[in-house]
Amino acid sequence: MATPRSVAFYTLGCKLNYSETSSIGRLFEDAGYSEVPFQQGADVFVINTCSVTDFADRKCRQIVRRAMRTSPDAKVIVVGCYAQLKPEEIAEIPGVDLVLGASEKFRILEYVDELSKAPGKGMVRAGEVKEANEFVNAFSFGDRTRSFLKVQDGCDYKCAFCTIPLARGKSRSDTVENVVNNARQIAEMGVKEIVLTGVNIGDFGNGTEVIEGTRPKKEALFIDLIKALDEVEGIERFRISSIEPNLCTDEIIDFVAQSKRFVPHFHMPLQSGNNKQLRMMRRRYKRELYASRVTHIKQKMPHACIGVDVIVGFPGETKEDFEESYRFINELDISYLHVFTYSERPNTDAIQIEGEVDMGERKRRNKMLTILSDKKKRYFYQQFVGQQRPVLFEKSKIEGRMSGFTDNYVRVDLPLDEALLNQTCMVKLEALNPENLMEASFLPVKAT
After folding, report:
1. Domain range annotation of the chain
2. Relative to the CA of 344, which of 17, 178, 185, 397 has its CA 20 to 30 Å away?
3. Which residues contact 114 (CB under 8 A, 6 or more apart)?
4. pTM of the model
């Protein structure tokens, strides 16, 4: 009998990447491979990359070196956005055997077989991104109490700073029927929460031109998808990973406010609170629209959590521009920020814009907004001290602890009780600890 082959995975970047890694893992499992922890060593390493920032590029190189130290004779395969954007550069990294582009990564087993027949370092199979024109469904399973379900891929937006359209191609979506079937399959696996993922999920069904009060001639839009998913039995929670403010319509907000399963948590990228910067970034809204979305969410769901993406140090962002953006964000009734320091990316229009911001100044602005985020988060959490809310528990990274999120994304930390993992239970929120985690007391009543 042949010795079972082993495969290990390492995922960089977004929830969408995690969903795709998990699906690629099932391909290997069906082919007879056993999945093992990355640090254990394997016959094949698959590294799923991101290329949003320079850090992601450097991280990929570090992970390749780690794999080779663990298993010097292993095959190392790199897929993902970085692999599509810079395949030849990755192929030159010592230890890399195979680089697969966006349209090739789900045919990975064909290429693994090809590697064994024609061994050689740095083989590249990455076509033009326009070849990535089909939707391949994916969802994660097995690593957490929630599943990341891919519903959309690619992007037709032309934001000046972004490489994603170059790495993933044009916007394309799954069908409502197939997404619902995947959700039912996930429910049968015992998963309690599904996070909807994609590059631009509000564009599901190519709803890019959604205008308030009108409806383009499309078979199904994002609102149709979430209405269908709200009827899926077995899933307690659906969470929207991120949605563009111009696509987060009042209709979507109103539906979430009264839905059975969609939780009161929105993550909307802002990128800048300055209209000049938004125009230079080629975003499809002004800050006034963003503020109106936040206001509408809070009117319908005062307890809702709202997360925000912001970029600091974009070319042309003056000290006055940043201060205006800071004041705007400070006045918004939001819950936390994800702050990104702008980094120059090849083949984007932003690198042609004059007014480069000194890196030290970029880091200073990042620190200011990070501090503001901490303040916003603590204020948001403190509003719920003394309340009882449902929490879906999972193992914490800290030994002997478990953690979980309330429906409105307040993170709770408690001593580990194995019987409560992957269970939704009511707790009383007691107090915030210095790590911005909510301490709570357990109420022995299962949430309904």
Report:
1. 6-131, 134-263, 297-383, 388-446
2. 17
3. 123
4. 0.89
